[in-house]
Amino acid sequence: MAASDAAGAGRPFQHFAAELRPQSALRARITADYRRSEPECLPPLLAAARLPPAAARTVAARARKLVVALRRKKATGGVEGLIQEYSLSSQEGVALMCLAEALLRIPDTPTRDALIRDKISTADWQAHVGNSPSLFVNAATWRPARKPASVPRSRGSSAGAASR
Questions:
Q1: What's the gap between Cα 97 and its chain centre?
Q2: pLDDT band at 59 (very low <50, low <70, confident <90, very high)
């Protein structure tokens, strides 16, 4: 074995290292943080995501204006009909909003099904049957209102319920 081969035996990829550019500050931080736990990462991210009070008031005012305009609009189908029927001040409206947000992030069907059972089994759907001129809204309301047994209450977490 030649002397140069013996020297490189402990570091077989040494010749590639010379071609590597130094990491940017952002890349170095990503490299250092890619295995950090969520409890370590979240507090600084949440702090960075907070809006200054004036901007938060502006965002809240615009959101309120959009919701009020949507509710005043007399469209009766689809999502607009659901928004008109299920206010976020109601248990049913909050359940639907939680479902819509959470279902975007749940990858597997059993967990999605368990979450749906958990969220819709606790609301008073019967109070909404026939309130909307929208066939879509009434049809979406009818199943959980008429068949509470088909929407069993989940015990424990979604993942635990899904494994039953």
A1: 10
A2: very high
